[in-house]
Design a protein that fits this description.
heterotrimer; A mainly alpha; B mainly alpha; C alpha/beta; A: mainly alpha; MetI-like fold; 12 helices; C: alpha/beta; four-stranded antiparallel sheet; 11 helices; 12 strands
Chain lengths: 284, 335, 327
Amino acid sequence: MKTLRALLRDGRFSLGSVVLLLLVALAVLSFFSPYDPTEWRVVPRDLPPSRQYLLGTNSLGQDVFWLLTFAVRNSIFLAFLASTISRVIALAVGLVSGYSGGIVDRVLMLVNDGFIVVPLLLILVLLAMLVRERLNLPAMALLFGVMGWAFDARFIRSQILSLREREFTYTAILSGTPSLRLIVNEYLLFVVPLTMATLIGNMIWVTGMEVTLAYLGLTDVTIPTLGTMLHFALNYQAVLLGLWWWIFAPIGAAVALFVALYLLSMSISEYLDPRARIQRVGAR
Amino acid sequence: MRFVKRYLIPRLIQYVLVTFFGITLVFFLPRLMPVGPVEKAVASIQARGAYTDPKAAEETVRVLREMYGLDRGLFFQYLSFWRRLFTGDFGPSLVSFPTPVIQLIGASLPWTFGLLFTTTVLVFVIGNFTGALAGYFRQNRALKILDAAAMVLAPMPYYIVAQLLIILFAYLIPVFPVGGGYTIGASVSLSLAFIADVLKHAFLPALSLVLLGVATTHQIMRLIVQGVNEEDYVRYARIAAVRERTIFGKYVMRNAMLPQITRLALSFSGLFGGALVTEVVFAYPGVGLLAYRAILASDYNLIMGITTLSTVALTTSTLLMDLLNPLFDPRIRLI
Amino acid sequence: MWSVRANKLCAAYVLDIFGTKKVIHAVNEVSLELRENEVYGIAGESGCGKTTLVRLLFGDVQPPLRLMGGRVLYQVDGRELDLYSLAPAERRDLRWSFISYVPQSSMSNLNPVIKVKGTFGDVLKSHAPHQGKRELLERARQHLVELGLPPKVLEVYPHQLSGGMRQRVVIALATLLSPRVVIADEPVTALDVVVQRGVLQLLKEVQERLQNALVIVTHDMGVLANVADRIGIMYAGRIIEEASVWTIFEQPLHPYTRYLINSLPAFGDKGTRESAPGSPPSLVELPSGCAFHPRCRLARDRCREEVPEFEMVGDEHRVACWLVKEG
């Protein structure tokens, strides 16, 4: 509670949370949608925003506002699920590697660096292409989760290493605390807040990747996400036809989501460790 | 000698290991998918065979099966992949059969190089310059406005910025072409008119890359300079009334540039992978667009070629950076 | 002959932490005098305002630190200068030529990417802009020889020097322009005991050679016992006792000073040492009256209500304690 109050005093944190809460509220609205987002031609086409159609309608005959609620819901869900998966991997690898050192550490870091040096975007594009037809949300989350942990595993490992140098570890080892309990008690409690900060950073990455893949037309376009909405709008030449509400709805929501997450992650990591700021901005 | 033994050799070993493992990942990851990449390529060629020359299609499929040992085990395929890799042979492209993959990549590289080298250098110079000033003169109004601009721009998804630039400068105010590398039909030559045409086409993609790159670099550099500014040696020099110009140049900048040089080396590795999204959005004929076309056409050889090359490019630039670092940081020179 | 005089100095850090304003009263009404050819020790637990006091004497006041009152006078070549009414450029000119500073011994007081001679050159160049590079370097080399340091250290990078040598080099750097006042803030804290002695000896030697004022700030009374002439004891931002080194160690009057002396180990001593119970007060909310009263066993009602005056009680012996005044 104290932490939350301290964070809320930071303008960036409160702004970020307000925007994120608004987006979540938008996502919750999708459960009350009068339309099925996968159905086409349920409303008249190409209508500008009005009282009846808040954000207008698109060339496929969908209500942009209600479609957007689904898109926001799916995008946030995907980002959260994928980031959680990759956090679990990053945390496990970082903890084990940092704690055990020696040969285990070397092998794990080799795997880790392998994942860092492969061109992630190309690989993701390739993998997405192979399984495009089956790329539903959980599958996509798994894909992003498996590919997106390496940077933060290294970060967590470095934190563990610096922690090991501190006195309480020696005290604990000398007094015979079993290592599993040591990992949980001494390290996990310290590393979990840091992992939370990387979670938000990773959610930004996942959302960005999803929109990129959808933009390139490599995901299952029948699932409404911010990316697929943008994909359809661009494919149906919304810009040329002057259907600005169609293209600006997903762009606006995406920018809002990015900025909100970005503000939150900046504020949290600064709160946790002023020096971490550099690493956060530096991660891609 | 100690330098060689404790610094150089471990890094060389790591270079070899990481490159090996990275390429291994590139090979295996696609094969963990329910649909294998080669099968996918075969299927798409057979489908096309229906309305192109069936004989040629059949020939391609046969070459493929033989080349990858599709009828044999995964391990055999892996070994033959390495064997071909060492001879620099990525095989023929499947779409532009039988042009070798390496030739296609070679034709696209100059475009990517020209675009990315220029923008990377620009981003490095501009971003570090404004970022350093903003970090050093924290109270300056104009620099604070710059900070705010970077703050909004940096988290923007790239394609949105790119798309906005296209909407603005190609549709609304049509001063730049919508995409492409040069006007279609123009004769490719070293004439001034052609060069001007190329530059005009490269302007928007370059602008989009520079805008976002500068915003990110600005933010990172600002934080680094703020950090270095608090270091003991900077404070002490300031207390000793060393001239402000000297402190900024010799004490703050020289130390703050160390991590940025590392980042520069890493970003140069992107030269081989191309800027996929940029090149697709602007239809710019570089390696990125080549990769995208290859993916859409299931041109497996071409994809593997580009992915492997950019993996090697990244590990190699990391190694080069490790080797160059001692020049800038005396602490590494004498371990 | 005095060199520096502080008169009722008050200063505070004004911080803005996530929107809450916080005022840390680091220095409260401190008056002291530094004289030619003496070593003045300032002692106290960490967090009692020692370093802030030093910054005030030096004229290094930058946000969040703010001067709230009082004056600092320098006596430069017979002229009296009021430090805080000088123009910034004039204040800069006095640095190193009149008053200089030896920081806490740490790894990073010297720029890691340039050779030691670079740092020496930068300092000299800033204070003697018309001299040539070679001339300056020669001057630095001569100075090192005078202090008994190998001139070779100029040619290496800071990380190639040991901790003790690095601190010696910093001392040489600080005394390059023969300043009348040298302030050393915890100069030996991070060094091990054997190296400590050598570094202290160098400080003392330089002081004897220059016949100037040397201020040593430390939390370790043992460091001062052998080198200091006079000692001021600080507690919660105030000097609460000041006397010659002999008086402080043999006839301390303030209960806090007695605790400090008592906590020092002595040869052949096997009993447990008594130190002040509790920890120093928060400088954000100082206790009422004498700030030491919550930790003082002899505290009376008056100690809780009124701040005791800092008064002369004997020859060169000043103390701020109600017990002493009221007997």
